[in-house]
Amino acid sequence: VVGKEVHLLKFAYSEGVREVLTVAWSGTDAQGGFRMTGLVPGRYYLEAGERVSGRPVPGGRSGTDASGQAFVTTFYPGSLALNGAAPLVPLPGLDMSGIRLEMRRERVYTLRVKAVDQGDNPVPDAALMIRHPDQASGSAFIASLAPVRSEGGLFVFRDVIPGTYVIQARPGPQAPNPDGTLNPAASEMYGRLEVT
């Protein structure tokens, strides 16, 4: 598949929290091939997806066909989730070739989510994220979907594949009241979302 972005991932720990790090990346060429060099021995995972703000996201943005399907982010050898991926273990001084990552085409949907307060007013500067529940909180880069934000607190998540997601809303920075005081800080909100 031409024009996709491939990331090499590894697990690491930061302050006791398991995270997923990108250690190398490459674009696919006219034959769908890619190359990464200078790797140290270790256990890696491979992910391919669309280029969105420099990073692939679940669902990608590859252009939906007439049946509503699109290429979606896929983990080697052909899983839709990192927990179903097979590891790659390069050995010192040896090239790894012939790796075949079969990108999946899946039915995708567009979600429109509006962030409002208890009075049904749009929440200014809120941040919304949806991620797969089996992903660690530190791996939001591969788990979250990049929203397109419009006025009025509306967030649009494109090319979402069916599944269960955790949705997280984070309030934006708080403006002071006219007398200089601040209202009690709003907390983050979490929920579950089913896409079928």
Strand percentage lies at 35-45%
Oligomeric form: single chain
Strand/helix succession: EEEEEEEEHEEEE
Spatial shape = globular
Residue runs with pLDDT of under 50 for 5 or more positions: 52-62, 136-144
Main sheet: strands, sense, barrel: 4 strands, antiparallel
Terminal CA distance reads: 27 Å
Mean pLDDT, nearest integer? 77
- Structural class computed from helices and strand pairing: mainly beta
Count, helices: 1
Strand order of the largest sheet: 2-1-3-5
Give the fraction of residues assigned to helices.
Answer: under 10%
Report the radius of gyration as a whole number of Å.
19 Å
Total strand count, please?
A: 12
Question: Care to describe what's here?
Answer:
With about 200 residues, the chain is mainly β. It is built from 1 helix and 12 strands. The strands form 4 sheets. Strands 2-1-3-5 form a 4-stranded antiparallel sheet. The protein is globular, with a radius of gyration of 19 Å. The model is unreliable at about 50-60 and about 135-145 (pLDDT under 50).
